[in-house]
Every structure is written in C-alpha cells, then in structure tokens.
C-alpha cells in the first residue's frame, strides 16, 4: 500500500487475513432505488449515528444533482457513508448470499481501505488499476476523470480499458468510493478501524469524473465526514465469510 505522491500515504506491505470479493462495478442509481423504495425507512438498517443524521436531514433518495446523475446505469452519487452502510445491511437481509452469486455464509459489506487498494493495485505495486501509464491522455482513455472531458458520471462498464487485474472496473474515476475504514492520518502507525458505529471521518478511494490523473492512482487516499454527500461520491460493495 501507499507510495510517493499527493495523499498516497506511506509505502508499506499489508496482509489481508480473510478471503473477500469485490463488486465489479459501483452501486448504480437503479440498484440504490430498490433500497430507497424498500428499505430506506427501516430503522434497523441504520447505525445509531446514521439514523440520527437521516432523521435530521429528512433525506430519502439522492437527487437534485441534475438529470444525467440520475441515469439508471450510472453510479449513484450524493450518497453519505451512513447511507452506503445502510444499503449493505438491507442487501444482506433482502437477498440470500446465493442470490448474489456468493458462497453460503458470506455477507455483503463495505470494503476496507486495504481490500480496496489490493483489488485496484494487484500485488505488483502498480500505479493505476490497468498498470503503468499516467499521462493525461492515457488516463483519459481508461477512465472517466477530468481529462476525459465528460463533465459528469458515465455508465458503468464504459471504460473496460481501465479494468483491474482482479476484474473490477471503474476503480479509477467516475466516483469516489466510500470504504468501511475510519480515516487515520498515518496509515502505517495505526491499525485499520472498520467498526461501522460512530461518526468518525471515513476513507474514500478512486477519484471521480471531476478529478485529474493523480487522484485516479491506486494509492491515493481521501476522507470526509460520514454525513456528507456530493455529486462525485458513490460506493461499491464487498463480501466475505461471516463472522
């Protein structure tokens, strides 16, 4: 993990103890709509801090970002970390693991920061999910960042040239993705904290349609308060054996 460059964190070797899987794409507008319709109002899906935020904000569905951002096969945006966590809890209850193509006993959740970077970066320390090549022209061909010039999110699967070695797509550009991990300034000196309770700052990864080539690097880290929403923030799900 980590390396040189803005906000990449110190370079270090990290071991991930348990197997996991990562969704090929970020959660789309259409997928999130099912949760907004069938589970958003159920208090059992929310953390204590998240439920308090939902009641205070009166939020019921990401909207108001313009028509293109509500396209069904685009990544959903305007989603807080609390909402992403609640979506995972709803998905676990609404579908059996087998219905999601997972082994029995596996459970959907948000990926940790380490899991996200491992999936994006493979084991060879590559700079971008596709390998080397970080010029503005190269990045514009492989992901939806600022250099691509679209000015909005794009349909998932539109940039197969940016596919990571593991098969995941959109891990550079399109939307920043929430991770389960609470932010820590120096990731090499503190253990990763993935407890969903509380109101700690949370990690985002991957860059967005609004960001340049530097933010599309696998090692770039960012953070925000878990209640914040914007038109460049989305998420994808992971899964692992439970407990």
How would you describe what is shown here?
It is a single chain. This protein is of the alpha+beta class and 243 residues long. The protein has five helices and seven strands, in the order E-H-H-H-E-H-H-E-E-E-E-E. The strands form two sheets. Strands 5-4-3-6 form a four-stranded mixed beta sheet. The chain has a three-stranded antiparallel beta sheet with strand order 1-7-2. Helix 2 crosses helix 3. The longest helix is centred in the middle third of the chain and has 14 residues. It is globular, with a radius of gyration of 17 Å. It starts with 20 loop residues before the first strand and ends with a strand. The model has no long low-confidence stretch (mean pLDDT 93).
Key words describing this protein structure:
21% helix, alpha+beta, three-stranded antiparallel β-sheet, 243 residues, single chain, 5 helices
What is the strand tally? 7
- Percent helix among the residues? 10-25%
Structural class: alpha+beta
Low-confidence stretches: none
Shape: globular
Summarize the structure in short:
The protein is an alpha+beta fold. Helix content is 21%, strand content 11%. The strands form 2 sheets. The protein has a 4-stranded mixed sheet with strand order 5-4-3-6. A 3-stranded antiparallel sheet has the order 1-7-2.
């Amino acid at each position: 993990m980590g390396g040189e460059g803005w906000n990449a964190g110190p370079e270090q070797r990290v071991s991930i103890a348990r197997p996991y899987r990562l969704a090929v794409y970020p959660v789309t507008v259409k997928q999130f709509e099912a949760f907004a319709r069938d589970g958003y109002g159920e208090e059992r899906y929310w953390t204590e801090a998240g439920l308090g935020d939902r009641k205070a904000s009166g939020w019921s569905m990401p909207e108001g970002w313009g028509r293109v951002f509500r396209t069904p096969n685009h990544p959903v945006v305007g989603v807080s970390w609390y909402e992403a966590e609640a979506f995972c809890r709803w998905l676990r209850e609404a579908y059996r693991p087998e219905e999601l193509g997972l082994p029995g006993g596996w459970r959907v959740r948000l990926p940790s920061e380490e899991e996200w970077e491992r999936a994006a970066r493979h084991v060879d320390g590559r700079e971008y999910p596709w390998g080397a090549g970080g010029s503005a022209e190269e990045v514009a061909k492989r992901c939806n960042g600022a250099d691509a010039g679209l000015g909005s999110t794009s349909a998932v699967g539109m940039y197969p040239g940016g596919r990571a070695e593991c098969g995941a797509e959109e891990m550079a550009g399109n939307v920043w993705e929430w991770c389960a991990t609470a932010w820590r300034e120096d990731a090499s000196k503190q253990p990763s904290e993935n407890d969903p309770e509380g109101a700690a700052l949370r990690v985002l990864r991957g860059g967005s349609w609004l960001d340049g080539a530097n933010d599309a690097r696998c090692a770039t880290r960012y953070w925000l308060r878990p209640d914040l929403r914007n038109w460049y923030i989305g998420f994808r799900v992971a899964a692992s054996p439970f407990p």
